[in-house]
């Protein structure tokens, strides 16, 4: 065993659905619970970066379906993620954790710009870094941003928190009684099987750069702390 290993540094994805508790707006009690679980892991020495989604406010693709210009709608989606970042920042600070928000669209009064080396420095100092505004580019998803930010800030693993499911299944377990829970999955199988774990861009970027991932359920009490500390509770996805 490598006892001189670098400290554990991980990237956690929290979807907009989580922040909204399934509705539009913010479910502060849910965010507080997750923030408190993150705080436990941070106090145990885990370095935590977070990418926040924005589906509880706007999804560009949905607005485009209703006739809006896709790129402009995507920018609205990205701005929505920043509101979630600020909510999470507030509740993490209340839980005693030092935080920084960095956004891919500059908004100096509200957050730092995304500066990878500075993000790494924050992580080394035990601050949680919350990445907002996605990639700053339309037609991308926050899932893809997770893989990119994890690679650039040298995270060892991406932890994809999900609502309503606790792992990847061969089919939707809420609809198909024959759905099988997968302990492990390869990126290629996820891409070819189109399992709906996340978008294909994210999967292929993770595969091409050998980034490990775990897909897990956010709902069980303590789950967030457990995955952050390195326990396997969901589906591991690897090359
Ligand atoms: N978005 C984007 N580029 C990015 C990340 C996000 O255009 O790099 C937009 C896109 O419109 C997306 C919305 O922001 O629908 C919210 O992000 P996402 O749907 O990934 O959030 P989640 O589903 O995780 O809540």
From TrEMBL:
<keyword id="KW-0963">Cytoplasm</keyword>
<feature type="binding site">
    <location>
        <position position="74"/>
    </location>
    <ligand>
        <name>UMP</name>
    </ligand>
</feature>
<dbReference type="GO" id="GO:0006225">
    <property type="term" value="P:UDP biosynthetic process"/>
</dbReference>
<dbReference type="Pfam" id="PF00696">
    <property type="entry name" value="AA_kinase"/>
</dbReference>
<feature type="binding site">
    <location>
        <begin position="135"/>
        <end position="142"/>
    </location>
    <ligand>
        <name>UMP</name>
    </ligand>
</feature>
<dbReference type="GO" id="GO:0005737">
    <property type="term" value="C:cytoplasm"/>
</dbReference>
<dbReference type="InterPro" id="IPR001048">
    <property type="entry name" value="Asp/Glu/Uridylate_kinase"/>
</dbReference>
<dbReference type="GO" id="GO:0033862">
    <property type="term" value="F:UMP kinase activity"/>
</dbReference>
<dbReference type="GO" id="GO:0005524">
    <property type="term" value="F:ATP binding"/>
</dbReference>
<comment type="subunit">
    <text>Homohexamer.</text>
</comment>
<feature type="domain" description="Aspartate/glutamate/uridylate kinase">
    <location>
        <begin position="9"/>
        <end position="216"/>
    </location>
</feature>
<dbReference type="GO" id="GO:0044210">
    <property type="term" value="P:'de novo' CTP biosynthetic process"/>
</dbReference>
<keyword id="KW-0067">ATP-binding</keyword>
<keyword id="KW-0808">Transferase</keyword>
<feature type="binding site">
    <location>
        <position position="172"/>
    </location>
    <ligand>
        <name>ATP</name>
    </ligand>
</feature>
<dbReference type="InterPro" id="IPR036393">
    <property type="entry name" value="AceGlu_kinase-like_sf"/>
</dbReference>
<keyword id="KW-0665">Pyrimidine biosynthesis</keyword>
<comment type="function">
    <text>Catalyzes the reversible phosphorylation of UMP to UDP.</text>
</comment>
<dbReference type="InterPro" id="IPR011817">
    <property type="entry name" value="Uridylate_kinase"/>
</dbReference>
<protein>
    <recommendedName>
        <fullName>Uridylate kinase</fullName>
        <ecNumber>2.7.4.22</ecNumber>
    </recommendedName>
</protein>
<feature type="binding site">
    <location>
        <begin position="13"/>
        <end position="16"/>
    </location>
    <ligand>
        <name>ATP</name>
    </ligand>
</feature>
<keyword id="KW-0418">Kinase</keyword>
<feature type="binding site">
    <location>
        <position position="169"/>
    </location>
    <ligand>
        <name>ATP</name>
    </ligand>
</feature>
<comment type="pathway">
    <text>Pyrimidine metabolism; CTP biosynthesis via de novo pathway; UDP from UMP (UMPK route): step 1/1.</text>
</comment>
<feature type="binding site">
    <location>
        <position position="54"/>
    </location>
    <ligand>
        <name>UMP</name>
    </ligand>
</feature>
<feature type="binding site">
    <location>
        <position position="55"/>
    </location>
    <ligand>
        <name>ATP</name>
    </ligand>
</feature>
<feature type="binding site">
    <location>
        <position position="163"/>
    </location>
    <ligand>
        <name>ATP</name>
    </ligand>
</feature>
<comment type="similarity">
    <text>Belongs to the UMP kinase family.</text>
</comment>
<keyword id="KW-0547">Nucleotide-binding</keyword>
<dbReference type="InterPro" id="IPR015963">
    <property type="entry name" value="Uridylate_kinase_bac"/>
</dbReference>
<feature type="binding site">
    <location>
        <position position="59"/>
    </location>
    <ligand>
        <name>ATP</name>
    </ligand>
</feature>
């Amino acid at each position: 065993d490598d006892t001189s290993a670098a400290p554990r540094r991980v990237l956690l994805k929290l979807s907009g659905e989580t922040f909204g508790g399934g509705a539009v707006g913010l479910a502060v009690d849910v965010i507080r619970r997750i923030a408190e679980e993150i705080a436990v892991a941070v106090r145990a020495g885990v370095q935590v970066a977070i990418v926040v989604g924005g589906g509880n406010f706007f999804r560009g693709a949905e607005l485009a379906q209703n006739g809006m210009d896709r790129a402009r709608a995507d920018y609205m989606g990205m701005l929505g993620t920043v509101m979630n970042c600020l909510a999470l920042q507030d509740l993490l600070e209340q839980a005693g954790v030092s935080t920084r928000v960095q956004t891919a669209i500059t908004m100096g009064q509200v957050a730092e710009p995304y500066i990878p080396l500075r993000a790494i420095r924050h992580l080394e100092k035990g601050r949680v870094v919350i990445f907002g505004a996605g990639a700053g580019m339309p037609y991308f998803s926050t899932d893809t941003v997770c893989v990119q930010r994890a690679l650039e800030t040298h995270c060892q693993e991406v932890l994809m928190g999900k609502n309503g499911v606790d792992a990847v299944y061969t089919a939707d377990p809420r609809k198909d009684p024959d759905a099988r829970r997968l302990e492990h999955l390869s990126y290629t199988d996820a891409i070819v099987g189109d399992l709906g774990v996340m978008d294909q861009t994210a999967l292929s970027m993770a595969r091409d750069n050998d980034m490990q991932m775990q897909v897990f359920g956010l709902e069980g009490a303590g789950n967030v702390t457990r995955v952050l500390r390195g326990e396997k509770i969901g589906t591991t996805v690897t090359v």
